[in-house]
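INPUT
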Amino acid sequence: MRAVVIGAGVVGMLSALALRERGYHVTVLDMATARPPASWAGGGILSALFPWRYPAPLTALTQDAVPRYTQLAARILAAGGPDPEVYTCGMLVDAGGEHDAALAWAARHGKPADYRSASQVAPVLPDAPWIWLPEVGTVRNSRLLKGLHCLLAREGVSRAPSAAVSAIVPEQGAWRVSSAEGAIMTDQVLIAAGAWSAELLADAGLQLGLQPVQGEMLLYPPGLAPPPCVLLSDAGYVIPRRDGHVLAGSTLRHGSQDQRPTAGAAQQLRAMAETLWPPLKDTTPVAHWAGIRPGSARQWPWLGEVPDAPGLFLATGHYRNGLVSAPASAELIACLMAGKRPSIDPRPYALSSALSAPSSSSSPP
Ligand SMILES: Cc1cc2nc3c(=O)[nH]c(=O)nc-3n(C[C@H](O)[C@H](O)[C@H](O)COP(=O)(O)OP(=O)(O)OC[C@H]3O[C@@H](n4cnc5c(N)ncnc54)[C@H](O)[C@@H]3O)c2cc1C
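OUTPUT
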């Protein structure tokens, strides 16, 4: 089987890898960007933020993220790529009055959790009970993406790095995927184009509730005392990197695809970060950027075949949880494309529930 994957973000690249493992000849097409707008920009926390606030379909995709990324990191290193720095540092959450809900969620999913005084973890933190989730880890996005490029090359996945796909058209039982670079015929297509996926599906008659959500991050240099773990509150989070860098994130601007960072967001993030981790007070950030999340009106992604378009698949809408849920999403969509039974029940992610009206779904894009 031949498959074209549109989008070289973390969802597209991991899906391409999972398809290759199932014997596919895979080509990945991406617009001219070495920095996928969401995957490059993210914080790399391998947990949903406040995981107990999410429904079961999101938990199913996120709960094994750390072991999955640990295995992936070993494969990337073996392929000669950079270390994606999976770092199981734990996450300490200022959970307000949600302690019981958090502990009940952890018990239900077999995750260790307790609540303890934050000042026990670090004396500069408040003497107030916060939730401690010791198994939460992080991955370093830029290194992960470079590593995935190495791994895909090693596995024989073809890439066309500057092909903005403009049309996907059924032709004689196959699909023609067109860009300014030319056209490719393929048996199956996976749209994993992040916040731009809806544009490629404009005529499919689906109500997916997708929307770009811009988000900004700050990077602090090594040299100050980094937090010992991820710190999370309703205002934001700070993330320690293994080399001493500290990330602070993130803002939410709904409906925006503008990748230019703003002075207002920098100010907001600095105030948040200095409150959450006071040692940041005397340090000036060294970098500030914006990314575009594939936002979704619901809290888990769309993964499945487009109704009435056999061979055309979609994997998007990962919103704030695309890094943590990408490995399980990739496995699920690759199983569906290959006609195999996935280990996770695919029904909650299916696109059939997104049909706007039966009469409008007859022609694929
Ligand atoms: C500030 C910020 C912080 C975040 N923090 C976290 C976190 O800590 N943990 C977590 O799990 N998630 C986090 N996320 C969310 C996560 O980054 C995203 O959910 C995830 O990266 C989505 O990946 P993707 O592959 O779907 O999209 P993208 O990474 O955007 O990739 C889509 C790709 O498709 C390409 N494309 C689009 N249209 C076309 C076309 N027509 N033709 C060809 N190519 C096309 C784009 O160029 C792009 O490379 C964060 C996001 C942001 C912005």
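end of record. Confidence is low (pLDDT under 50) at residues 357-365.
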